[in-house]
Design goal:
- Two copies of one chain form a homodimer.
- Chain A is of the alpha/beta class.
- Chain A has three domains: 9-50, 434 Repressor (Amino-terminal Domain) (Orthogonal Bundle), CATH 1.10.260; 56-163 and 298-324, Response regulator (Rossmann fold, 3-Layer(aba) Sandwich); 165-296, Response regulator (Rossmann fold, 3-Layer(aba) Sandwich), CATH 3.40.50.
- Helices cover 45% and strands 17% of the residues of chain A.
- The first copy, chain A, binds a DNA duplex through helix 2 and helix 4.
Chain lengths: 339, 339
DNA sequence: TTGTACGCGTTATCAT
DNA sequence: ATGATAACGCGTACAA
């Protein structure tokens, strides 16, 4: 019934009555072999249930047809769309995605990356700019093509595809300022080891500073990217520094948490408090029309990253940096501050 | 600066002044080699930035330290928690996750699985019971240890870890029946090629049939698992067969969509319509207390799957089927039908 | 404790 | 168009 050992190419070759080389070519370079023998080899392979041995192939060709990706926790849905796009588009080109994650810690990320390089990935996708120097050293020593997703590199040193978080954040904040808001609060993601969260927060500060407004320290709360944490952060802000009319959230999951608490307390959104932020997972639009967001196109980032990587592996030249459009979505009832 | 070719073990050996075998052992079986030489080899390896060549190792050891997982689209957040748990727990044991996805189509799944097997995965995680027979044949021919996540196998034939969807669905429906509901509608996921969606729907039917109630065909709508689709489904149901007081949703994302439309229309939940369903991504609890759900523990499924796979690879015996607890969450304001 | 030598399954180079 | 054979880089008998 179940044969204990898998057929190898030499089995196929022998059964088909050809040499190893011919069998290999018949399956890999069909045009190099006479139609008749090609078909015979193929039939035998199918009949025997032959499955190529990837490790052997990788050893011989020095390519694994595997791309590695190192993400922060992927149960953070922010990255799910990109992961899906990567896996899908790479698969369409015959590549498979080797996925590793870490808990927003540089050491974990370094280890994960090393594991992927040991697996012989042909390319590597990373998230953001904040990395252990040892990671970059590892990358350059190994010579694996890599790129950084989600952010753009101010130094222009690393290949990357992403959005300009700070600029987007400035635009959001200016929009709120234009509506007349002067009292701001921010629920941000943890900014340590996370340039996206940091840049988004800095953007708020810069926009406010541009109008001579300072963001008070008690009006800023950093927390984990989850709705419950967003809600707790909002409660904390309301407790220790109430009076803000505009709340900028690091992303829509945090906004959802804040919004939930607004509903529970009967706080009118956006009449009493206007909530704005980044829409990382297209949730805000579904939950409420009361938000102003920059939509971060995770799927698009993944698609572009895949396309760029495939192009590089094919020997094409690709631009060092690629910005994907991040649309500012201003919904109708976007809220002025109470008079 | 950047050395173009990576150091191999023979480079390490030569530089350290030992043989290839000793170098290999110094890094892999440290206790088999004298402390002094072991350290010397290690230092040289670190200095040279030596990274083992996975393909060569896999070829020699016949193990890739890689586990494959084939998921429906992972931007469906239902599977994000499991993916994260798998990647994390496997990494802790020195394994890496090779991820492939498909668009809920048997052919795509088969191709993805084949790709993973070709990559030489040491084990394979799949989702659900619905698979192309050719997939099972491929699995048994290849001899790769596999297991099916999310569901339990009625035939007891396949190793699996999951929940009893039908039974959970019956419990939810009975709860609504006990509250006095008699007019039911269902928003289900597509049941083709998806035993989870099918079993959940069947559970509603069975529970109703047990009380002599039939679920009208116009009161059932199958759609994609997304909030916008859930909302559209709800609108459709309201249009073509209004009058239901209980709505069972295939999962919380669909419920969220329906709920959004309730809010827009001013339909009181749960006074006018009680919404219940499955909580695949722990969203319902955050959005509203008006839902009754069975919480599907995706992360736990992933953790158990990882543990079982690791145990099998270590040669341990594991139970053929493993059910993870799926808690019925009855929230306070769970809703009686309007008098 | 260490070294030698072979094998893992494929691709690729050279002949034929 | 096909065949023989040498890599690919590492693990592991087996020998010393």
């Amino acid at each position: 019934m179940t044969r204990r050992t898998n057929p190898k190419l030499s089995d196929v070759a022998r059964t088909a009555g050809v040499s190893l080389a011919t069998a290999s070519r018949a399956l890999a370079d069909p045009e190099l072999v006479k139609a008749a023998t090609r078909e015979r080899v193929r039939e035998v392979a199918a009949m025997l249930g032959y499955v190529p041995h990837g490790a052997a192939r990788a050893l011989a060709t020095r390519r694994s047809r595997t791309i590695g990706a190192v993400f922060p926790p992927v149960d953070n849905p922010i990255f799910a769309a990109a992961t899906q796009a990567l896996a899908h588009d790479l698969a369409a080109a015959g590549y498979t995605l080797l996925l590793a994650t870490h808990e927003y810690d540089p050491a974990g990320e370094l280890g994960a990356t090393r594991a992927l390089i040991e697996r012989g990935v042909d390319g590597l996708e990373l998230v953001g700019m904040d990395h252990d120097p040892a990671l970059f050293e590892l990358l350059s020593r190994s010579g694996v093509p890599y790129e950084l997703m989600w952010s753009l590199d101010p130094s222009g040193h690393h290949p990357c595809v992403g959005i300009a978080h700070r600029f987007a954040s400035i635009r959001i904040t200016q929009h709120l300022l234009d509506l007349g808001h002067r009292e701001f609060a921010v629920i941000a993601g943890f900014t340590a080891h996370n340039d996206r969260a940091r840049e988004r927060l800095v953007g708020v500060r810069e926009a406010l500073a541009g109008r001579g407004i300072e963001l008070r320290a008690e009006r800023v709360f950093e927390t984990k990217f989850s709705a419950p944490h967003g809600r707790r952060a909002f409660i904390e802000l309301l407790g220790r520094a109430p009076g803000f009319t505009a709340l900028v959230c690091g992303n829509d999951v945090l906004a959802l948490g804040a919004l939930t608490e607004c509903v529970r307390r009967g706080i009118a959104v956006p009449q009493a408090i206007s909530i704005a932020g980044f829409d990382d997972i297209d949730m805000a639009a579904e939950v409420t029309p009361a938000l102003t967001t920059v939509r971060v196109p995770g799927a698009e980032i993944g698609r572009v990253a895949a396309a760029r990587m495939l192009a590089r592996l094919a020997g094409d030249e690709v631009p060092r940096q690629e910005e994907v459009p991040a649309e500012l979505v201003i919904r109708q009832s976007t809220g002025r501050p109470p008079a």
